[in-house]
Hints:
Layout: H1 2-12, E1 34-46, E2 52-65, E3 70-83, E4 88-103, E5 106-118, E6 125-141, E7 145-154, E8 168-175
Antiparallel strand pairs: 1-2, 1-8, 2-3, 3-4, 4-5, 5-6, 6-7, 7-8
Amino acid sequence: xxxxxxxxxxxxxxxKGIGQISLGNGAPxxxxxxxxxxxxxxxxxxxxQGYRYFYVGLYPVVGYMLNEKTSVGTSLTWQxxxxxxxxxTIDQYGFSPFIRYNLGQAFAYSEYMFxxxxxxxxxxxxxxxxxxxxxGYSMPIGRRGAVNAxxxxxxxxxxxxxxxxxxxxxxxxxSF
Length: 176
C-alpha cells in the first residue's frame, strides 16, 4: 500500500502548478489573503511495537497569506486509530499552528501540533506535542483552488511516548 501511495504522489505531482493564488505585483489584498481547505489522512501498517494499525484523520485548515511566498494558519485535527491485533481503538484531537514558505510549485512547511490522546496504559487522556517539518507540492484547480501533498517528519518523535505510530506523516489536502 505504501509503495502505491508513493507512486501515486510522484506521478500526480509531476504536473505543473502552484498551490495558492498568484497575487501578481504587490502584497495580497483583503479577502484574497485568506484561504480555507482541509484534508483526509489514511495510513496503515505495523507500528514500532509490532502491532498492525489502520489510521484515518480529518484536517480542516484556515490560512492567511502574509505575502506572496509566506503564509501562516492553523488546522484542527481528528485522528482515529484501530489496532486489530490488540482490539484497541484510539481517537485523538488537537490543533496545529503552521507556517508555509512557497518555493515556486514546491513549499517548505512546519507545524507544531498539540494533540490530546488517551494513553496506552489506561483510558486517561494526555496532551502530546509534535513538531512536524517537511516539503510539499501544490497543483492548482482554477484561480484559487489547489490540491496539495506533503511529507513531514516529527523531530520530537519518541518511541516510548507510544502516541504516534511513526515519525513520518504524509498528507494530501485541498485548499480554496
